[in-house]
Specification:
The chain has 146 residues and is of the alpha+beta class. It has a single domain, classed as Hotdog Thioesterase (Thiol Ester Dehydrase, Chain A, Roll). The protein is 17% helix and 40% strand. The chain contains two helices and eight strands; from the N terminus they run H-E-E-E-E-H-E-E-E-E. It has helices at residues 16-21, 54-72, and strands at 24-29, 32-37, 44-46, 51-52, 78-88, 98-107, 111-119, 126-137. It has a six-stranded antiparallel β-sheet with strand order 1-2-6-7-8-5, covered by helices on one side. The chain has a two-stranded antiparallel ribbon with strand order 3-4. Strand 1 and strand 2 form a beta hairpin. It starts with 15 loop residues before the first helix and ends in a 9-residue tail after the last strand.
């Protein structure tokens, strides 16, 4: 039985938007990625109640699933989001970090399927869940216009 090869480290700096939000890798393993979105006043969507903007949670889960899909695809291939469904389960406090764990459900010939959950206090108390599918593409030819 061959030893499973470790996935190359995920570089979130490839996305300026993700870098600007301060999202960072907490854990990475084959088929699994945990990210952290640090709390900050710019992410408050409901100042009266101090709640996090839902788009920040969506971005965190999209990032977790998308980067995991990219890491799960064959080397040298690109991925594009086909579908991402996020269900919000509880409000998120704007003064606490948010974590998201993404898991690869299946890697098919042309599609990577992922699922994810987000939480603040404990993974047992999720604030959102997600299901996503990502198309595996050939990289663009050198000099090609996207």
């Amino acid at each position: 039985m061959a030893a499973e090869q470790a996935a190359p480290p995920i570089d979130l700096e490839l996305s300026p938007h993700v870098a600007a939000l301060g999202i960072e890798v907490v854990e990475q393993a084959a088929g699994r990625l945990v990210l952290r979105l640090p709390a900050g006043p710019a992410l408050i969507g409901d100042p009266d109640r101090g709640l996090l903007f839902g788009g920040a949670v969506y971005t965190l889960m999209d990032t977790a699933c998308g980067f995991l899909a990219f890491a799960s695809a064959p080397a040298g291939r690109h991925v594009a989001t086909l579908d991402l469904r996020v269900d919000y389960l509880a409000p998120a406090s704007g003064d606490r970090d948010v974590f998201a764990e993404a898991l690869t459900s299946r890697v098919a010939r042309q599609v990577v399927f992922c699922r994810a959950s987000a939480w603040q206090e404990s993974p047992a108390q999720p604030i959102a869940s997600a299901l996503g599918s990502f198309m595996i593409n050939e990289p663009p030819a050198a000099g090609a216009v996207p």
